[in-house]
Specification:
- The structure is a single chain.
- The chain is an all-alpha fold.
- It has 18 helices and 2 strands.
- A two-stranded antiparallel ribbon has the order 1-2.
- The two termini are 50 Å apart.
């Protein structure tokens, strides 16, 4: 254990700006954990080189701690929060409730706040620090965040020879404990009045109030982006494409492909198939189901000639038939679909299919190689 301590202590002194005392405290706790694991692990006990196994384990713990230290206080919190959110996203689903993407994020936030408290208590217990201990330095905070990530990823043995990550089990329990619905007095929420039985402090009430306040403000670019995300999530859920919704949520967090595959429990071939299926539904959503919203966000709505430059607009109209030119003209006048269909002598469904094809053509023109009119948001 002395050699392990010296290894960790020396690296902390060299790689951080923490005081010698702080480095000594953290090194002592990590060395004690490594020693405890080595004593309890049958695999390590039966290893031909226990010292090498212990040193490798110590370096792993050390690198985890230094990763969070180098990210800093804010960056480390974001990294930890994103990592754990990605793991539990699929499991935070209130029973009997079709929740929106934003509602699920709010529930994840509530769940993780409680999990961080549990993790801190586990850290105090396992490292045998004071009962009221909390990190007071960047190195101490990095040590705690590294512990929390490992704590959440611990494999818990279950009946039938199965096992699961501890944080997933906690998330499943959390979801099951959510009420099937929440009744809220909208008048009192709008007025911000006090409620009986402590309802005013309920997270759901706070979310409703925040949503109402946001609704009174003029929607900016970020508001439109969030609305597109929520609508797409709802669309995928309605189409029974929950796995596509999960894939999209992980993509939004910019997770690397191998990590997405691990979280979803798929191999590269299955992930590629899932990605293609998601792209299919994304195209249907963007060009058919909610094309107005998507094109407004992309600054490619009808008022902007579908986001085409004057040259592209002329090229677009040159590619389409006279009837399609007329369809574009009627759409730009803002006429309802029923009236446009009557003018073209077809059914509403036929007219909508024709419009879908036109949007595909405009999309290709706008994003063709060498195009100068491509919206910067088109790749988001």
């Amino acid at each position: 254990m002395k050699e392990i301590f010296q290894l960790i202590f020396g690296e902390l002194r060299e790689s951080t700006r923490a005081s010698e005392q702080k480095c000594r405290e953290v090194a002592t706790r990590i060395a004690a954990e490594v020693n405890r694991i080595c004593e309890r692990s049958k695999r390590i006990q039966e290893s031909a080189d226990m010292e090498k196994e212990a040193a490798n384990l110590a370096r792993h713990r050390l690198q985890q701690c230094l990763k969070y230290y180098k990210l800093g206080s804010r960056g480390g919190r974001i990294e930890l929060h994103s990592t754990l959110s990605a793991i539990v996203y699929r499991y935070i689903t209130p029973p009997q409730l079709q929740s929106s993407y934003q509602a699920r994020l709010n529930l994840i936030e509530d769940f993780l706040q409680g999990f961080y408290v549990e993790s801190l208590n586990a850290f105090r217990r396992e490292t045998e620090v004071e009962a009221n201990y909390s990190p007071q330095s960047l190195l101490g905070l990095a040590e705690y965040m590294a512990f929390t990530e490992r704590y959440g990823k611990r494999r818990i043995n279950l009946p039938g020879g199965r096992n699961q990550q501890l944080i997933v089990l906690r998330a499943q329990t959390f979801s099951q404990q959510q009420p099937p619905e929440t009744l809220v007095d909208m008048e009192m929420v709008a007025e911000g009045a006090a409620m009986d039985d402590g309802v005013a402090s309920d997270t759901s009430v706070q979310q409703v109030r925040e949503a109402m306040v946001v609704g009174e403000k003029e929607e900016g670019d970020e508001g439109l982006r969030q609305k597109v995300i929520e609508e797409l999530m709802n669309y995928l859920e309605e189409k029974g494409q929950k796995d596509c919704a999960d894939y999209f949520a992980l993509r939004l967090q910019d997770l690397p492909t191998p990590e997405i595959e691990e979280i979803l429990g798929v191999n590269p071939r299955q992930r590629d198939y899932l990605q293609q299926r998601f792209k299919y539904h994304l195209l249907r959503f963007a060009l058919s189901h909610r094309w107005e919203l998507v094109h407004q966000w992309l600054e490619a709505d009808l008022d902007r000639n579908l986001g085409l430059t004057p040259e592209q607009w002329q090229a677009f109209k040159a590619q389409i038939e006279p009837e399609q030119v007329e369809l574009v003209r009627l759409k730009q006048q803002g006429l309802p679909d029923e009236e446009i269909a009557r003018s073209l002598g077809c059914t509403v469904n036929q007219m909508q299919r024709k419009w879908f094809k036109l949007l595909e053509v405009a999309w290709d023109v706008r994003n063709s190689p060498g195009s100068s009119g491509k919206s910067p948001k088109a790749d988001e």
